[in-house]
Specification:
about 190 residues; alpha/beta; Rossmann fold; 8-stranded mixed beta sheet; 5 helices; about 25% strand; tRNA processing; membrane; transferase; methyltransferase; EC 2.1.1.33
Length: about 190
């Protein structure tokens, strides 16, 4: 009886956390497909050696892959929902990932300085908010890689079109000031 009560309590806390965060942010923690993870990892190649930040890191699926793929780089995740954030913390400890940190914060309320790459899988309203942050200098970054949703007012440096059912795009934007003279966007079909 005690174990069942504990289990029910844990399930209710997880569900409540996800529902509350969904109401606050307008989106629930949603994992990407394996093809999308591969696309994001490909677009992060050749982006330097600086920090990679995942805005809305959810259950940690991407940040854990990033930490394993780039052990020499600092990986940081931001997730507001309690249950996914806690799950990711546990996985970091179990896997011994020293280059990965996750914060339970709303990424729209922080400044990001000296970030090499921002990664996200959000919704159009959040992408607009990120664009606003970039334009005011609150997010100082060189690249932004976005799964599925475009950054308004920007042309991607490169676009991968996944071979999934929806032909989902993964975008890479060059954000730093010299991006005005960038070469024409490339589109590649992958995965």
């Amino acid at each position: 009886m005690l174990i069942e009560s504990l289990f029910v309590t844990i399930v209710l806390v997880v569900i409540s956390s996800i529902v509350w965060t969904t109401l606050v942010l307008g989106i629930s923690p949603m994992p990407s497909s394996k093809k999308a993870y591969q696309g994001v990892l490909e677009l992060i190649e050749n982006t330097g050696t600086g920090p990679i930040v995942d805005l809305g890191s959810g259950w940690g699926n991407l940040v854990i892959r990033l930490a394993r793929t780039y052990p020499q780089r600092q990986i940081v995740g931001f997730e507001l929902s309690f249950a996914p954030w806690l799950f990711t913390l546990v996985m970091i400890k179990l896997l011994g990932l020293k280059n990965l940190k996750v914060h339970r914060k709303n990424f729209l309320n922080i400044r990001l300085n000296q970030v090499n790459v921002i990664v996200c899988y959000l919704h159009p309203k959040a992408m607009k908010a990120i664009q606003d942050k970039i334009s005011t200098g609150a997010y100082q970054t060189e690249y932004l890689v976005s799964n599925n949703f475009a950054l308004p007012g920007q042309s991607p440096e490169q676009t991968l079109t996944l071979t999934d059912f929806y032909r989902s795009p993964v975008y890479r934007y060059k954000i730093c000031e010299d991006s005005v003279t960038q070469s024409p966007p490339r589109t590649t079909k992958r995965f």
